[in-house]
Amino acid sequence: MNKEVIGLILLLCFAFSCQAPDSNTATMVDESWDNLLDPDLSQWDNYLSYQFEEGYDGSIPVDSLGNELSPIGTNKNDEYQVFRTIEKEGETLLYVTGEYYGCVISKASYRNYHFKLKVKWGEKKWTPRENLLKDTGILYHSIGPMGAEYWRSWMLSQEFQIMEGHMGDYWSQASSAIDIRAYPPEYIMSPVADVSQPFLPLGTGEEVDGYCMRSANYEHPVGEWNTLELICFEGKSLHIVNGEVVMVLQNSRYVEGGKESPLIEGKIQLQSEASEVYYKDILIRELDLLPEQYAQYFRS
């Protein structure tokens, strides 16, 4: 066999190897993601509550005569423009001014899914966060009426915190509770997530209140986009920040009338919380089973 023939065979083999995807590439191609962000925000409702002052104590705000004020309400955003889409460099972004507390709420409910988005901070902050860290969040398994929690802005839910230096923290909203692989709190310190630890119950009805700090800070520098992923499957969840698992949670539940019930399905809320923020590439796909790469975190 002459050199020209051998060279041709090698060239064909190289070309075929470039075209034939390995199993990992094939998996990526086969994944089916639903895009939840379009210019009309057609897959989201919105809710606006109040502008909060310093020293808010969790009660219904009142006017100068002591009369209770009503929240702005559901789908009243057109007048206030707290949530709107903008086009930038050929991409659709969800822009949140943060001026009023509230959220966009997915019209659909979800149970077992992989949710992801990209987020970056704007410049503005509003009272009562003017001297605090920028803050927003993803609220999942959201059920019941709006304004059920302390700030009277969101539904009963579990929170994937988005805060400067704290992306991936957990907060209980209203009467929710969950178990997290975490070091227990000591004195004034908060519990800290760690995949090596046993599950620690937090939230309503538990000794530890409804907050846990992420395992480590993987946030990108200011001005850069951060990729956040949320895995939910039958009451289990993972908080993932820029490819790093920062929290492992299970046994999602809520308490009503002293009785615990599973909290494993619901809508998704994206918060407006006195901080200017941008979202893009908001995607979701259903899970029929929990992939091994995620299931391993829940074994004892």
Overall residue-averaged pLDDT value = 91
Q: What series of H and E elements makes up the topology?
A: HHEEEHEEEEEEEEEEEEEEEEEH
CATH-derived architecture: Sandwich
Based on Cα principal axes, name the global outline.
globular
CATH overall fold name: Jelly Rolls
Alpha-carbon distance between the two ends = 60 Å
* Total tally of structural domains: 1
Secondary structure: number of strands: 20
The biggest sheet, with number of strands, parallel, antiparallel or mixed sense and barrel status, is: 12 strands, antiparallel
Helicity range:
10-25%
Structural class: mainly beta
Number of helices: 4
Q: What are the main properties of this structure?
A:
twelve-stranded antiparallel sheet; Jelly Rolls; single chain; about 10% helix; 4 helices; AL/BT2_dom; about 300 residues; eight-stranded antiparallel sheet; mainly beta
3D structure, described in words:
The protein has 300 residues and is mostly beta strands. The chain is built from 4 helices and 20 strands. Strands 1, 4, 5, 7, 11, 12, 13, 15, 16, 17, 18 and 20 form a 12-stranded antiparallel sheet that branches. It has an 8-stranded antiparallel sheet with strand order 3-2-6-19-8-9-10-14, with no helix packed on it. A hairpin with a 2-residue loop joins strand 4 and strand 5. The protein is globular and about 55 Å long. The model is unreliable at 5-30 (pLDDT under 50).
